[in-house]
Amino acid sequence: MIDSRTAPYAALVLRVSLGILFLAHAGLKILVFTPAGTAQFFGSLGLPPALGYVTIAVELLAGVALILGLWTRIAALVCIPILLGAIVLVHGSAGFFFSNPNGGWEYPAFWIVALITQALLGDGAYALRPSASATTPALAVR
Questions:
Q1: 17-60 pLDDT, tens per residue?
Q2: What are the boundaries of each domain within the chain?
Q3: Out of 18-22, 124-128, 134-138, least confident range
């Protein structure tokens, strides 16, 4: 049974933690690998290097949107292809466990499950979202 009193706060905790993770990964690509290095890595995988810049932008925008509770379902779903790409192109060949050399696919797979869960749950408590109508509050506390 779902406790309707605490479920919105569970969605909030999940939403904010997912947002922080995406900001951390975007920060890693910007500050450690550099955007140019990220683009070069994407090129080494046979992808268009520009996709590295797109990935950084999506991670930044989705991270902020998730933390603030703006377009939460869309932000969560938009991130899934990034993680699927990470599994297929980078981590899949390293086996299941993320502690394996080159990281396995367990962590990105779990992250996908968490994003699907967030998309199903929706905004949760304390979400700033565009008002659907004049009667919908801009700050939602459900």
A1: 999 999 999 999 999 999 999 999 999 999 999 999 999 999 99
A2: 7-140
A3: 134-138
pTM here? 0.88
Half-sphere exposure of 129 (CA within 13 A, CB side): 21
| 77's tokens | 């779903």
Residue 111: partners with Cβ closer than 8 Å, 6 or more residues away:
18, 21, 83
Dihedral of CA atoms 76, 7, 105, 81 in degrees, nearest 10, equals -10
Quickly list DSSP for 20-85. HHHHHHHHIIIIIS-HHHHHHHHHHTTS-THHHHHHHHHHHHHHHHHHHTSSHHHHHHHHHHHHHH
